[in-house]
Amino acid sequence: MDLPVQVWVQAIANGLALGWLYVLMALGLTLILSIMGILQLAHGEVYMIGAYVTYYCCVSFGINLYASMFISMAIMAGFGLFMERFLFRPVRAEILPPIVISLGLTLILMSSAVVGFGLYERSIPRLAQGSFVFLDSAVPKDRIIAVGFAVGLLLLVYLFLKRSKYGQAMVASAQSREGAILRGISPNTMSSMAMAIGCALAAAGGTLAGSILMLTPSMGTLPLVKGLVIIVLGGMGSLLGAAVGGIFLGLVDGIIPVAFSPGLTSVAPLVVVILILLARPQGLFGHE
Fold it and tell me: If you average pLDDT over residues 171-176, what whole number do you get?
């Protein structure tokens, strides 16, 4: 299809911004799944509530957007600690109860959001006003800043896991829970840290998404699905896999509706994921 260069630039910029938002969701999910061994299906609602916390900090209390985002990350990290301690820790050794709890939590949080926030759309103030000109096309500054924040958070998580004592303990716990316990690493502490970090990342992703797009009580559903696909595509526990998978899905969502048909956006990545898993069941960067 013969489209102007400006259209391609806009599609790629939107795709990269979406992709890195998906990466933040996938990072939190893979940390929780690797450390706790549970699939936190309410993670999309954490993403959504984090965005609303930022919105009310900005609009109701007049707090700077960036300060509001860090406040939201701290609040949702605390909420993560609460969920881990009182909801998931008692049933962590089971298979079905954590799934049932997370599904119930999804319904409770979404219903509470509908009652408390309403169904109409809201918007967080823009991360930045104006655009950069690239190849005669205007690229919004907020997309670039969103990508920069997401990349920065990914690097912080990587450095934490590779360089800090607690991060290395989390990696050891993910690789062998029993071996980590024998080395004196507390599984409860690791689970609390994983849940707190995962929820903080989801809040950051929700804030960035709310600034670029709109806020609704159902805004976390699609990123949750994308995050789960990214985990499978990239490989469980792989930060590189999460980054590559997120960028791939984001570019698909940004480019395919422009180049082909919006209907293919939901089908194309699933077809690719199925083909990859048939050839490599552990994902692109997973271990044998």
Answer: 88
